[in-house]
Amino acid sequence: MGNFVQEITSMFEDHDDFFIKEMIVDNTAIFLMGFHTLIDLTKSNLYVRQMAESSTSVNDLFINISNQLDVDAKQIIKAVLEGKLVILSGNSNRNAVVEPVSRNLSRSIEEPKNENPILASMNAFGEDLTTNVGIIRKRLNTELLCHCSYQVGELNKRKLSMLYIRGRAPSSLIEKVHLQLQQIKSDIETIDDLNKHLGQRKSNLVSHLFPTEIPIQAVHSLKKNRVVLFLDNYPFALVFPHLLWDMFSSANDRNFPFVLALMLRILRVIGALVTIILPALYVATVSVNPEVLKLDFALFVAESREGIPLTALLATITMVVIIDLILEAIVRLPKSVGPTVTMVGGVILGQAMVEAKLVSNLLVIVITAIVIASSTLIGVQNSLYVRLLKYPVLFLSSVYGILGLFTGLTFIGIYLSSLTSNGIPYTTFRIEEKGGTK
Fold first, then answer.
1. The whole model's pTM is what?
2. Which segments of 111-245 does DSSP mark as H helices, in order?
């Protein structure tokens, strides 16, 4: 193998999807180079062989197969990153850039099932790991994008890929994740299985990984010094580490002017606070600290609860649990039935409970606001754990009133501040660049 071939190979040694295949033509070795995530190697190899059979020499092959001949190393690297097939002669005298038989990395235009991008590409990741990596390479064609592949599991061997941008993601983070993935011996069936190998405790509410099915979000995370993982037969990119700001900020926000993007993020922050605070505030002001309300508003609240046998805490917990059950039922039921359950559970049941004087009109308004507010957060798992956090604050407020509300918020702040992912705090806003060199 010539020095030039070795030089090109060494530049892509961190890319496990890079291939170099030797072929003998007219007693001369030639080398085929490219990314198998972008090139259909079997069909491209067959095409080159057919062209070689119709050529009288290696020089004729290069002339017949391409118009882009004898380019410099910089152009070769650019061609490889763009998904082209590069052919080099064994003596390094000739090279050619060929349009290969490419992998079909495009899917039919359809909206992602779990996320709703606005003013953005509507394609989503699929179950094939190679295709998913190819989609990222198609959007981020730079030699700094590194790809490491693994095979994990004991009974069920599954392919796993790690992508990162060299020089952006911290080297310490890359080394730790690389070591953790190499040490996986048990089967990986769920995200939680992978979370455990990345150091997450069983009692943690927040996942280390943030799943997204939108390529633009995965590329944005890579540029923000994160690591992106792909698991075979799983149609999501797993961004590591997952940070607090991820539930308020999305790559799709960048399609809007800065002022509008800022407004959207502020609304999401308000949504999280409303989800946690509003039910507790209702119970605290109704049953423990009614004196904090103005007299006319306190009388209005008291009048709305006239004739209701349930205490404020019991009525609130009942409504909150019912709403959570309805939301879970909507997720599990077929799409043809889900809207019907929403109508029956959200409207008819709520109205019936008000007319039966089991809950007050004001409580129904509070619960409706909670459902809407929790839905503004980015990511299903973020919405779930924020909805769970409202319960301890609710119980503290039912006993200690406003003091219990602030105590609960303080404990939540302490808990979230204590979470880390491989030494990176969950509450940090950005990961500092420390030069990944692997």
1. 0.81
2. 129-139, 171-182, 191-197, 215-223
Alpha helices in 333-360 (DSSP H): 338-343, 349-355
Other Cβ atoms within 10 Å of 409 Cβ, number: 17
CA distance 62 to 55: 9
In the chain, domain spans: 3-98, 129-241, 254-421
Contact in structure between 412 and 390 (CB atoms under 8 Å) = no
The Cα–Cα gap between 174 and 158 comes to: 21
Summarised one tens digit per residue, pLDDT across range 64-110 is: 888 888 888 888 888 998 889 999 887 767 889 998 888 877 655 46
The rounded radius of gyration (Å) of the Cα atoms in the chain is 28
Q: Return the structure tokens found at 41.
A: 């190697």
> CB within 8 A of 108, min separation 6: which ones?
none
pLDDT tens per residue across span 413-436: 999 999 998 889 999 988 876 654
Amino acid making up residue 75: Q
Q: Does the structure show a pLDDT above 90 at 290? A: no
Q: CA 72 to CA 107: how far, in whole Å?
A: 34
Query: Smallest Cα–Cα separation from 131: which of 150, 105, 151, 109?
Result: 105
**Coarse DSSP helix, strand, coil percentages of the chain, rounded to the nearest 5 percent:** 50, 15, 35
Two tokens, residue 295: 């007299």
The dihedral formed by the CA atoms of 256, 257, 260 and 266, expressed in degrees to the nearest 10: 90
Stated as kind and residue range, the H or E segment containing 61 is helix 58-65
Is 277 buried (19+), middle (13-18) or exposed (0-12) by CB count in 10 A?
Answer: buried
Q: How far apart are CA 180 and CA 162, in angstroms?
A: 12
Please measure the distance between the N-terminal and C-terminal CA atoms of the chain and give it in whole angstroms.
25
* Nearest CA-CA partner of 362 in 107, 370, 325: 370
C-alpha dist (Å) from residue 47 to 24, 98, 335: 14, 11, 46
User: How deeply is 194 buried, as exposed, middle or buried, from its count of CB atoms within 10 A (0-12, 13-18, 19+)?
Assistant: buried
Give the tokens for residue 315: 């009525």
Closest CA relative to residue 243, chosen from 93, 51, 375, 416? 416
Lateral strand order in the sheet of 210-212 = 145-152, 158-165, 227-231, 237-240, 210-212
Q: Which residues, in sequence order, are CB contacts of 113 under 8 Å at separation 6+?
A: 124, 213
Please state, in angstroms and rounded to a whole number, the distance separating the CA atoms of residues 135 and 105.
6
